[in-house]
Amino acid sequence: MRVRREEALRYLGAKGAPDAQVEALLDGAVEALNACAAPRYVALRVPVEVRGAEVSLQAFTANSSALAARLSGCSAAYLFAATLGAEVDRAMARLFKLDVARAFALQACAASALECFCDDSCAALAQECAREGLFLRPRFSPGYGSFSIVHQSDMLRALQADKRLGLSETDSHMLTPLKSVTAVIGLSAENTVCAVHKCAQCDNLTCEYRKEPKP
Amino acid sequence: MNLQTLLQKQLLFLDGAMGTMLQSAGLPAGEAPDVWNLTHPEEVEAVHAAYLAAGSDILTTNTFGCTAHKLAPTGYCAAEVAAAAVRNAKAAIAKAGGKQRFVAFDVGPTGKLLKPLGDLAFEDAYRMFREAIEAGAAAGADLVLIETMSDAYELKAAVLAAKEGASLPVCATVTLDRRGKLLTGGDVASVVALLEGLRVDALGLNCGLGPREMLPFLQQMRALSSLPILLQPNAGLPREVEGKTVFDVGPEEFAALMEACVQGGAGLVGGCCGTTPEHIRALVARCAGLTPPVVEEKHRTVACSYARTVCFGQGKPVLIGERINPTGKPRMKQALRDGDFDLILREGILQQEQGVDALDVNAGLPELDEPAVLTSLTEQLQAVTDLPLQLDSADPEALARALRVYNGKPIINSVSGKESSMEAVFPLAARYGGVIVALTLDESGIPEDVEGRIAIARRILARGAAYGLKPHDFLFDPLTLTISSGNENARITLACVRRLHEELGVCTSLGVSNVSFGLPARSYLNANFFALALGAGLSAAILNPHAPGMMEAARACTALLGGDANCAAYIAAYGGAPATPAQPAAQAEAMSLHDAVLRGLRQPALEAAKRELAQKDPLAVIESGLIPALNEAGERFEAGTLFLPQLLMCAEAAKAAFSAIRAQMGDAAGATRGTVVVATVQGDVHDIGKNIVKALLENYQFRVIDLGKDVPPEAIVEAAAAHQARLVGLSALMTTTVPSMKRTIQALRAQVPGCLVMCGGAVLTEEYTRDIGADFYVRDAMESVRRAREVYPE
Q1: pLDDT higher for A210 or B754?
Q2: What percent of chain A has pLDDT over 90?
Q3: Which CATH code fits B671-791?
Q4: B302-572: which CATH topology?
């Protein structure tokens, strides 16, 4: 799987240039990840209607000004879900019993690999949409801003994610397997390539991994 | 005529998709089709009628989502929906008249992942399935069809619910991806082993793939299974077109592809997503005249985990690691008593890394609640290893409970020729499946001669047959006695192995190392006896993979006896250059314990600890070597010159050194610094931060009680009180689970006064932590160590 090493290193909390030992740790983690990851995604195109803060996505309606803002000007959107599969969870559980450094490195690589996989999947969707003159907006997930995490259930149901990806949620709407994502992706006729980085869209201003200057 | 008889004589045709048919009848997308059994019975009946007119012999009820969890948003209960669904199907059959038709009560997945991956308990899944199945059976269903399963554990829960909640034939099918895997791991071989162990009546595949993609997996299944196969593919692979899922294989093409599937071994055929009455009509027209495939007994002796299968008697000996057994292991005894399973789980993983194929699991200590401990150990081991387990107990209650929660088809260790033993174990094997280790001893003990042991084996086979157990369900152990007590002992055992193998045609297993008991240099005797036994046809051995010579003997004999094609496994093990350490040996040798730990080098740290232990008191090694190194690592981390991965590598190196120290100190080396309870709070499943905190605390000699993830407040309160912990560490990753953290703190305040609470997690801040009432905000793992040292000063 594709992994952005600098991203994985950041998740690992490694600052500055990694030494040979950390490099080796990362190499081992990438190898372990490739042995257990089974990446899959599913995307469903739905019409979008935005009325104030109310966003209708055919399969469900969400009341979220944050989502409404991100979908303003969009006539359609993708409901999107992706997972690296249950074996990654099992591998992490196994490694935590054996070697906590290796386990942590695997989780960092898996987090980066999931991001990469989502980016690559969205790039494929973007290519299809380009033929119709439509452009993809950034992914926006339930649980961020005012887009309530309870919509995780709606997303999973609409996508039949349990049947098609083996992806489900806990009673508190956490995705299982752990290395999974759901998101709404707006489609608009205008290529509003946001100058803002995706971190800038997040309300968690004190996040250690925030790439924008901290306030 | 009953279904099983009919199946021998002719192909049986099932129906096709239900949900999409109801949608074209007006069911809004996203609404639960199951509810229509009650609100729109005519429409449901009309779909059934269309399939009957197309030629279906078996109708599946409109109950794919009929479990408490999926129905929860609708307000309907599973039992009423189930009963209505069966009524609708039966009404359609009554109106159609004509030939005999059957109603299959359809069971789909719960839509939740089971623990430990998700948060649904195995027994809760079982109850949900059973509620629906009992109602369906009471309403008059003729069989149960469990389908679209993509998780082995959930599949097992559903099959048990069907077997125990009704007395109907049970068919079960799974969904594979294009690689032939279940969505949560597992493959055709493990599914066949699991389902045959659970004694279903037919098994197969449905959904996910079209008939073209399914055919090779069907053929694999046919080659392995001794049961009729049921196949319900989609009408090709799904495609999204303008927000709708479409399938491209039309009725005629579907029928032609399905003909190949019937020839490939499917005896019950129908369709899944995208198939319509037209598909079924074409299928019946094309295939009705075909003779049903002959189903042959495959005589395979096979055990499996959720994902991995071991097959006995196929040329390669099955190696079963014996290390998870408290006998003669004081540290393991203590760990079992304390409920601290990490040591044991590690031992399991280490044996796997040595190359064993299965793990024996024994928790037999007189002072333990063996049923509870063996069950818990089974659950925890199967969460971290995919090796099949050999559940080892003389207590039938312990076996029964562990067998029930086991995610796969285990090896059962053991039964003997004693009447009481057979009466206790055989029903368990018949109910849960399993390869049974059968010891050739009886009420009068172990016969001294070969003939006596073979006679017991024959008797066990005969008694087993009464429970439906076949010769290939057994693994006979003719018992290894030490040659120090009898010159002929090994020869007798070897002769038994040969006769069991050649005359009775059954598989065999031995606990090899008993042969050398009471003699010096046991490894020579053990390895050579093992080699001789393999030569005599031994199929499996219970052994210590860390013992010198055993793995070598296994690999060498497998190659010598033709079980290793092109000697590939032998070459893979020994063909490469010897493993080179990361540093030149001389340098590593010279490294002090302090340096090795600080540089995060495990092996050098272990060796340095051993060197220092030869000269110093163990406590001095800890005080003068380990602790200063850890402290320095911690300081560098806080100063920002050492980062988390390096800190964790230091922790691992220190852990390796501690293992050497503990080996020397024995029980006296228990953690001394005070107890910290750690947990990821209820509702949250992200436990990585908590695991890191735990690793570091243990390094600093704190005793850590790790309650895991998604832990309810009551459990945390109970543990804090029971262990008299003065510090509890709570973690949560998501903002949505922070309220759960607050509730936990309130409960601790009310019930365990004086216990301090530290909290950490990505979304927490100093201020937020104060608001929810915690004592400390810990921004990283090192800070949790600092807090713990404050709470428990030296």
Answers
A1: B754
A2: 76
A3: 3.40.50.280
A4: TIM Barrel (3.20.20)
Contact by Cβ (8 Å): B85, B43: no
Residue type for position B630: L
H or E element: which one contains B498?
A: helix B489-499
Supply the ipTM of this predicted assembly: 0.90
Based on DSSP, count helices (H) and strands (E) in chain A, helices before strands.
7, 9
Asked if B692 and A173 come within 8 Å (Cβ–Cβ), the reply is no
Touching check for B643 and chain A: CB below 8 Å? yes
- Give the CA distances from residue B249 to residues A160, B209, B234, in Å, rounded to whole numbers and listed in that order: 21, 11, 9
Nearest CB neighbour to A14, from listed B111, B184, B643 = B643
Domain that holds residue A180: 5-201
Under-70 pLDDT residues of chain B = 1, 242-243, 577-590, 666-671
DSSP letter at B667 equals G
Which chain B residues are within 8 Å of A162, Cβ to Cβ?
109, 111-112, 150
Any domain includes A165 = yes
Is the pLDDT higher at B269 or at A191? B269
Could you state, in order of their start, the residue ranges of all structural domains in chain B?
A: 3-287, 302-572, 585-668, 671-791
Cβ <8 Å between A163 and B385: no
Backbone φ and ψ for B314, nearest 5 degrees, come out as: -115, 30
Closest CA to B103 of B88, B118, B125, B124: B88
Q: Which of residues 95-154 of A touch B (CB under 8 A)?
A: 96-101, 103-105, 107, 143, 149
A174 in contact with B, Cβ within 8 Å:
yes
What's the CATH number where A169 sits?
A: 3.40.109.40
Does a structural domain hold residue A206? Answer: no
Closest CA to B403 of B415, B416, B417, B389: B389
pLDDT at position A196 over 70: no
Is A43 in Cβ contact with B240 (below 8 Å)? yes
Residue B576: predicted pLDDT: 75
* Nearest chain B CA: its distance from A162 CA (Å): 6
Task: Examine residue A31 and state whether it is found in any structural domain, yes or no.
Answer: yes
**Partner B contacted by A82 (CB < 8 A):** no
Nearest to B280 by CA among B254, B245, B247, B249: B254
Under 8 Å between Cβ of A157 and B30: yes
